């Protein structure tokens, strides 16, 4: 009985959404603001990667919100695990196999380098702060998998994360002091398609990348170290 | 829609249904990661490399690890 009602509800909601979605013209350029970004994005922000110019400049405030949500999630996870248990005892735990350990030694610097490359070049190539940060965190995950009992200095993660969060907001506030508004691109745009271009965007993406990376790595560390 | 895109969507649907059916939560996590991985391939084919990177790194990589660690801390089998 309950299953039948649930199925009926799902069908009804699905039909309602379907009826709305049928009328949305996907893939047609009808939205004025999208056309504006496509035509003027490069000249206004100097970022060759249009997605980045939207994420960091036009919708920079949303990005600040996303970073805040991620921060709250990390704090919540830490609080949940902290109330449950102390850091795990130093029980002897199996190390990963030689292959994993050697592979980690070889790959970890490369993964870190890739992550940093992705967020430093966020305004030129696909990717950006969130993607680069996630790559860095997966490098730390590999480190934890190879040596489950080894401790990473977590205070350093917290310090990097806090500093970068503050840097993001301060860079935004500097836009106000320059008279152009919060998170405005007040630095010179530079030459297109070079590393030092697009003004504020690389700086903000470096802050976001380091913040997301240290945050996610800290989350993985929380889960690995606390029982 | 090309043949490849159709196949990817079909596989995604299969993996998503499998995720909701499995009682073994580790299997469910793995099929969930498969949905993310296929979605990231699809994003790449649809010329959205930014989203594809985010989906591959976060959806298929980190989320899976965090879910596995969470399952290890709680219960493996759903009642």
What does this structure look like?
The complex is a heterodimer of chains A (227) and B (79). Chain A is 70% helix and 0% strand. With 227 residues, chain A is mainly alpha-helical. Chain A has one domain (51-225). In chain A, helix 5 (98-120) packs antiparallel against helix 6. The relative contact order of chain A is 0.16. Chain B has 79 residues and is mostly helical. Chain B has one domain (3-73). Chain B has helices at 3-21, 25-45, 49-73. Chain B is flat, with a radius of gyration of 14 Å. The termini of chain B are far apart. Classes of the chains: A mainly alpha (227), B mainly alpha (79). Chains A and B meet through helix 6 and helix 8 of A and helix 3 of B.
Topology:
The complex is a heterodimer of chains A (227) and B (79).
Chain A lengths: L1 H20 L10 H14 L4 H9 L1 H25 L13 H23 L8 H18 L7 H24 L23 H25 L2
Helix pairs in contact in A: 2-3, 3-4, 4-8, 5-6, 5-8, 6-8, 7-8
Chain B lengths: L2 H19 L3 H21 L3 H25 L6
Number of helices of chain B: 3
* Helix vs. strand class of chain A: mainly alpha
Major sheet description of chain B: none
Total beta strand runs of chain B: 0
Biggest interface, chains and residue tallies: A-B, 20 and 14 residues
- Strand pairing plus helix content of chain B: what structural class? mainly alpha
Shape summary of chain A = globular
- State the helical fraction of chain B: over 70%
How far apart the termini of chain A lie comes to 41 Å
> What is the percent of helical residues of chain A?
55-70%
Roughly how many Å is the radius of gyration of chain B?
14 Å
- What's the number of domains of chain B? 1
